[in-house]
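Q: Please design a sequence for this.
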């Protein structure tokens, strides 16, 4: 398994044992930036809030973040503008700016102010950079063109730049928000795994430690752990790799935060000063969950690119993270279909959760507290009116086709049962009729998971990943993340 660079804050967060049949105004599932931001906003407004998470504070997608809280966001604004009116792109920018300002206030001295760059190398990237520049300016951002010399790369670059953005230690930030939520009156339960969520006759969250009831339940889990609304089919589950390096010899750490135009989604950022030591983080190799023939190979290719391009030294850590992109490229925030107004959620940050998450929390908080439509910010009213355009439908159809082809290929490649015992650290898919099983050997133990659809073996994380809905499972069938809410069954071998 891989491990994130970010340290655990030495100052503990006050947690409470979960009491069965506990009742609150709002129950939030997920103790990442989204859930904790929502908890802080509601608790500070006098709402009785409980937060539950299967892991520790900031352990999931938050802990896998590289800490870039930027409104420029690589090629995101250009992609939005290519398919949506300028009013929506401006609202998206205003939402992320509001989220960023809120984070800056809460993080205080822990946030570094830096310039954010979207960059490219060579004439082939000029069109993409022009599109980023034009979309950003149209949306009201004070961006400028630059040919920076402090990138640290071995080849010249062209970039568009936005000053006064934030670099953060995301786990440290999560601990700060958790303490703020508790101080405002929220209750925090960690190590509590949610097994089911329902809304009749009232909001209900079933866990392995008991049941919680709430007038409202908020799913702040990356993607909703319920099939209501079929949001696993309306989003793409994407993974990417991050590698942290020491700087080579006397090389200086590049200033700023850097996102490269192109499908790889590569970014470069130095660890914030609050981290306490110098480190340069490179991220990239973005791909749909379950689509890689080898996660190890993807990570190695990213490491090789960093060594060719940047003056980096020894590797400090490498890890993989997961996020979700909606088919219309705008995050989903609000009430869950058939949730009777009691179930709310958010998803679809597409890798930019540090600014999108608090913006989503603002929307959720206003909705839950009943703030009138006319009293909400303009960006919130615009974002709350979703628009579907032909390109959205095309992306959805294309994604459905991709999943179907991946599943068909995986089923065709599956070995007829019984399969040979996999080598240590390896996995194989077997099939018997229309049924499949995922067989792996980890730490000398071979297990077979009964899979509803073919899974793919993640050789870096030693997990089974679903190309259908982005869910991931441990070798023993335990759900790790994704849309699934239940574990998979295991057959002994």
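A: Design:
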């Amino acid at each position: 398994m891989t491990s994130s660079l970010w340290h655990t804050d030495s100052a503990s967060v006050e947690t409470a044992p979960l009491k069965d049949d506990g009742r609150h105004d709002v129950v939030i599932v997920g103790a990442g930036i989204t859930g904790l931001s929502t908890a802080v906003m509601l608790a500070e407004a006098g709402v009785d809030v409980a937060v539950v998470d299967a892991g520790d504070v900031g352990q999931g997608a938050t802990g896998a973040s590289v800490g870039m809280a930027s409104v420029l966001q690589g090629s995101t604004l250009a992609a939005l503008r290519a398919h949506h009116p300028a009013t929506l792109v401006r609202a998206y920018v205003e939402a992320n700016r509001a989220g960023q300002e809120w984070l800056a206030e809460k993080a205080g001295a822990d946030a570094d102010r830096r310039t954010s760059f979207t960059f490219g190398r060579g004439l082939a990237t000029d069109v993409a950079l022009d599109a980023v520049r034009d979309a950003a300016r149209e949306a009201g951002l004070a961006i400028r063109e630059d040919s920076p010399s402090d990138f640290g790369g071995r080849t010249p670059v062209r970039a568009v730049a936005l000053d006064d953005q934030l670099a953060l230690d995301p786990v440290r930030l999560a601990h700060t928000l958790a303490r703020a939520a508790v101080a405002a009156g929220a209750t925090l339960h960690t190590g509590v795994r949610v097994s089911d969520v329902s809304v009749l006759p009232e909001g209900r969250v079933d866990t392995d430690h008991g049941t919680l009831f709430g007038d409202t339940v908020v799913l702040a889990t990356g993607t909703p752990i319920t099939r209501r609304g079929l949001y696993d089919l309306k989003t793409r589950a994407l993974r990417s790799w991050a590698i942290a390096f020491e700087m080579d010899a006397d090389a200086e750490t590049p200033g700023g935060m850097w996102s490269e135009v192109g499908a790889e989604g590569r970014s470069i950022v130095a660890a914030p000063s609050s981290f306490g030591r110098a480190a340069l983080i490179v991220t990239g190799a973005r791909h749909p969950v379950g689509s890689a023939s080898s996660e190890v190979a993807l990570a190695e290719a990213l490491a090789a690119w960093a060594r060719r391009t940047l003056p980096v030294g020894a590797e400090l850590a490498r890890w993989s993270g997961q996020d979700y992109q909606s088919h219309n490229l705008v995050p989903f925030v609000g009430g869950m279909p058939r949730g009777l107004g009691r179930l709310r959620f958010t998803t679809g940050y597409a890798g930019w959760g540090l600014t999108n998450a608090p913006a989503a929390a603002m929307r959720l908080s206003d909705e839950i507290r009943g703030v009138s439509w006319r009293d909400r910010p303009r960006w919130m009213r615009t974002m709350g009116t979703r628009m579907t355009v032909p390109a959205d439908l095309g992306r959805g159809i294309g994604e459905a086709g991709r999943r179907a082809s991946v599943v068909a290929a995986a089923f065709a490649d599956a070995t007829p049962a019984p399969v040979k015992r996999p080598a240590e650290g390896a996995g194989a898919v077997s099939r018997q009729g229309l049924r499949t099983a995922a067989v792996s050997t980890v730490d000398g133990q071979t297990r077979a998971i009964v899979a509803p659809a073919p899974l793919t073996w993640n050789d870096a994380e030693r997990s089974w990943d679903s190309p259908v809905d982005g869910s991931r499972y441990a070798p023993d069938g335990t759900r790790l993340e994704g849309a699934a809410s239940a574990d998979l069954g295991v057959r002994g071998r």
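Q: Thanks. Anything notable?
A: The two ends are 23 Å apart (CA to CA). Residues 133 and 161 are 9 Å apart (CA to CA).
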